[in-house]
Amino acid sequence: MPSALRKAVVVGTGGIARSHARALRALGDRVEIVAAIDVDHDRADAFAQEWAVPRTAADLAEVLADTDVDLVHVCTPPSVHVPLAEQALAAGANVVVEKPVALSLAETDRLLTAEEASAGSVAVVSQHRFGSGVQRLRSIVEDSSLGRPLVATCLTQWYRPDAYFEVPWRGTFAVEGGGPTMGHGIHQMDVLLSVLGPWAEVSAMASRGSRPTETEEVSVATVRFPGGALASVVNSVVSVRETTVMRFDLEFASVELTHLYGYGDDDFLVTAAPGHEDDVEKAWAREPQGVRSSHEAQFRAVLDALDEGAAPPVSLGAARDTLELVAAIYRSAFTGAPVRRGEIGADDPFAAAMDGGGAVWR
Questions:
Q1: Pairing of strands 230-236, 149-159
Q2: Are residues 189 and 257 in the same domain?
Q3: CA 254, CA 198: separation in Å to the nearest integer?
Q4: Residue 288 belongs to a domain with what CATH number?
Q5: Residue 156 sits in the same domain as residue 194
Q6: Which residue among 4, 183, 290, 339 is least enclosed by CB atoms within 10 Å?
Q7: How far apart are alpha carbons 267 and 307 in whole angstroms?
């Protein structure tokens, strides 16, 4: 049986906060938003009015000091994710933080230390893991029912005009953490790793020049996995016909997913190798079915985990694995050398910042 109604606060009431509020409202018999927190008072008030939130504040510490909070949803620009999450953990609350969880591997490791010392835990928003199609695909790869993976494609080809970068924190390594590799394609790369497991080596290139941004506009990478599979990864904000495409070629089937910002079961195309039609039909008919990728799907899993006394998904450790691939893509692109998993140590400049202290085009 579900436990008592959970109390949640939303920190940062910009655009992505509405996705959180919408999802939490859909789960309203299990969780309620008790406070909206933002340094912009007018924005917090507007959010509170829209979502019937009873309290606003400019400071998370103020709310944590006098309210028993179960969940702190961090929806701010990435540069303050870690300090806000640390505040929540220090108060014993659980944290749900948007991607990217931190600006760097070093910051992520700092947050892991804070999590270890807290009764709370950190779940990183990775909503595309929770659609039923990706969950089925993950189980098919895990049990090798359609053979081992051979080739994968991971394309985040989106479009952002110059006006997008007029928001002061966008297009910077110091506040946003990076360009489309860090802020856009990270969701698809997270799915790639959730399906294929840990990566082994990456070689990458990056470019810029048509947008008012100090970060890359495009990155292209080749990723090798321990079992021999290779993946092609493209991250872009200059692609006029926007699309998100993931394809996994297994020994006995190809599984393709095409969507933009969210998918359902109908967005998958599954093609069987000759002679394996029955195997593919049986594998793709397994549960779960009918669940779209969404914040709601992940937040339901978060609440389920809390009710069971378990750590909510997706763990900070799992998010770090994805962030390590991001850091390796930047390191390879800016140094011209391949990067192996685990190679970016604590004293590496690319552990401290995704541009390694200075992008090559500066």
A1: parallel
A2: yes
A3: 21
A4: 3.30.360.10
A5: yes
A6: 4
A7: 32
> Are 280 and 269 contacting, i.e. CB atoms less than 8 angstroms apart?
no
Are 83 and 59 within 8 A, CB to CB?
Answer: no
Q: What count of Cα atoms within 13 Å lies in the side-chain half-sphere of residue 336? A: 1
Q: Which residue has the tokens 């990728």?
A: 293
Q: Tell me the CA distances in angstroms from 353 to 174, 216, 357, one per residue in order.
A: 8, 14, 6
Mean pLDDT by 10 residues, the chain (362 residues): 82 96 96 97 97 97 96 96 98 97 98 97 98 98 98 98 92 93 97 98 96 96 97 98 98 98 98 98 98 98 96 95 98 97 97 92 68
N-to-C CA span, the chain: 56
Is 187 inside a domain boundary? yes
